[in-house]
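Dear Dr. V.,

Thank you for agreeing to look over these. As mentioned in my earlier message, I'm a first-year student in the group and I'm still getting used to reading structure tokens, so any feedback on how I've presented them would be very welcome. I ran two proteins. I've put each sequence directly above its structure. The first is here:
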Amino acid sequence: MEKIKNKKVLLTVYIVFAIAFILPSLIYIIKGRGIINLNCDFSFFFANPTKVLSTQKIISTIAYVTIFTGLSIAYYLIIKYNKTIFTSGEQVAKFILIISTIFFMMLPFTSTDIFYYMATGRSEAKYGVNPYYTSVAQLMQNEEYKEDASTDEILKKMPQVWKKTTIVYGPVWPLICKILSMISMGNLSFSLFIYKLFNLTLHLLNCYLIYKISNKKKIFALIYGLNPMVLLEGIVNVHNDMLSIFFILVALFFFIKKKKIVPAIIFLSVATAVKYYAILLVPFLVIYYYRKEKISKRILYSLGLAIIFVAVLIVCYLFYMQDLDVLKGIAVQQGKYAGSIFLIMFLNISPKFANLATKGFTLAFIVIYLYNIIKLLFTKKEISLTKNMRIYNSLLILFIFGTITNLHSWYIMWILPTIPWQTSKTIKNIINITTASQIAYWIFFLFSEAYTYSQYYWLTMMFVILFMCIIGSIKSKKKEGLECKNQ
């Protein structure tokens, strides 16, 4: 066990597995193949994305699962022995920077979303179209822009699945995309570099903010900063969830460290203007902040902050709003079925049943959520921030797995900003969920990212979560047994 605790051994093992992950990217770059030819559909790792089972695909799948499992085991051990390995926050910061830089060099390989971001940003920056009302396909067919757009490599790289889709996110994200696309000056490779650099910066800032709001507890920065799922989905695949998490953490920083509610609400509103889930945290902070006030004043102050929240959200939308169609992105995403329990219903029972189940689960969540908020609002008992955050986290997990029809692994990142207030058991379960969400990708490596295979992705994820929880429970009982014997 002393060897496992050895600082150099564990950190070296983690780095070795991280480098193993980026080798396909380095080989791809050395061969001189351009980003325009890059397939971010599970084929880039080793094998082609066909449904035909081949030796190459089996090797690719085994390689992915082996590397990710090795990285995850090293991650678990680093978290477990963090006090032995790291003696200062500076050491933690340096190691997170090294690992983040390694993953920065890895090309996107399980998601095409980054090229959707780049193309929509380019369409606004170069051609001046409103991405909420004009898709890239419409832009490329427009006679006014057709000649230039047809040769624009960033627009040409737009994934086919997204080509006819306008922006489905809040207005802060396309504004960021516009700025990043302007910096890239129309060069596809440089644009990818800029977007990845942006997310790398966000990742490091998020680690710092978690470190600060947790009263400089190194373990929480490590849990977030070295989490393989966060590194792969945030830095490698460049998902915009990193930005919403950043604004949530800034809000928590103002709330926890500065004791200021108004800036916290403003930043939560901006986070909601990236991805709408951030609104779920607002009542928990507001009610806690006014916990010592009478219930009547608590309600009055809450309404005042609600006005501020909505006003900031409206200001954000004014950059793009022409009519209420600017809000249809949420419905577009919720109208898709992938990677969720609802897809299983859709494919194996009936689409009608799945649609009814979606509405029923969503209604149930709204009732449960409002019940908890109203209960907190009218309680006369002492309100605890820790308890509030734990209730919020439980509700957020319920929201992710119980209401979203188009579920993706990177959504699980939403759970991480409030880990400093969770129990050790909950944190272990959250880590298990992040690990399971990535291991479940084996189905796409072995076959393809086909619509029907998403149900097996969900089933695999649930099976791995259950398996890891059982193993954890057995270990805990054994540990308790040993402690009892020693006593």
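The second protein is here, in the same arrangement:
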Amino acid sequence: METSPSLEAAKALLQAFGIILAAGSLGGVIAKRLKVPDVAIFLLIGIALGPHALGMIDISAGGALNQIILIFGSCYILFDGGASLRFRVLREVWVTIAIIATVGVLITASITTLAAHWILGLPLVVAALLGAATSSTDPATLVPIFKQIPIKERISQTVMSESAFNDAIGAILTFTVLALAMGHGSFSLSGSLLELLKQASLGILIGSVVGYAAALLLGHERYAFLGEFGPIVTLMAVAGAYLAADNYHASGFMAVFVFGILIGNKESLGLRMQPSEAEKMENFVAEMALIMRLMIFVLLGSQVDFGLMERYWAQGLALVAILMFIGRPLTVFICTWPDRRARWTFKERLFMCWTRETGVIPAALAGLLVGMKAPGAEIIASVTFVAILATILLQATTTPWLAAKLGMLVEDWQD
């Protein structure tokens, strides 16, 4: 009996998902034994299973299915990260977060632009496009790391908040430079700042409204009729917050992160779930976040184009080295200096210099540039993937060791 092409395609996808989940589960066990963040192991597994190695997974980066996993998975990881933050900590370090997530992105982009112009010989506008696309840190990478390693609260929450908020700035900067590179516009500082303010404000507003509404329906003494459906509410609200923000041209990731912050701090708003329902929702969120990061990073690894990378890997590594050892330290020390209230120590600043992973968000921006046939898009995509591999495999895997050496752990890290 003949089967339809759509049924065969569905079976192939089901098989791919089964392979990803099985291999990812094994990778999670290995990561726990090695005491390294699991995103690094998931990335290596994806590379091994991808079309350039074993050929067991071949899901197009530009396909709708991949985009759904990328967007929803990143959103859910961000929600989980936001829910772990506490108002009392954010009140202490909000100045640093605001500066490093805005001015810090511009500093990083500027240094990367100059380095790309010098090392790769790119025209300044193309180098600026590369700098903008790789300027933001990646919440889908950093949030899981700080959820797995017991880092001091103010450090972990500052870095997670930075990674959540700076994606909007990175995206705005990328598309502003793209308009210049393609001759579709002229640079306007006031216009760019207004657009940034609009996206940030709307994202925060929408996330706050969705977050408070969800917290009300989950934990209010009289109106909590959805209290026993907490897991389902998180799924609906994460998708709803992102789509509502995106509909109004605001930052969907920012909206989801703020939504998570309100859910995580609902007790501070006088809203409290039943202990059994709260535990059920907490367990569901943790498991769902694990599945999402497993899917994202195995797929990301499987989509690394080594044919493209091999042409620019040496220059890419040199550029990434400048980003890691010059760009990030300058960004951290400049942006934390004005915040006298936080009283950052040298060791805390040094640790933040090493937490600068490049991941899903820069990869998505690079993919969009390739799809839009932007000038130098292939070089940008190549260097971006070099940055992803280098920062995740080097920085993420050494974060526990460095945290212990600098005294950033709140307790001994044990199995």
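From my reading of the second output: The chain has a mean pLDDT of 84. Residues 76 and 235 are 8 Å apart (CA to CA). Does that match how you would interpret it?

Kind regards,
E.
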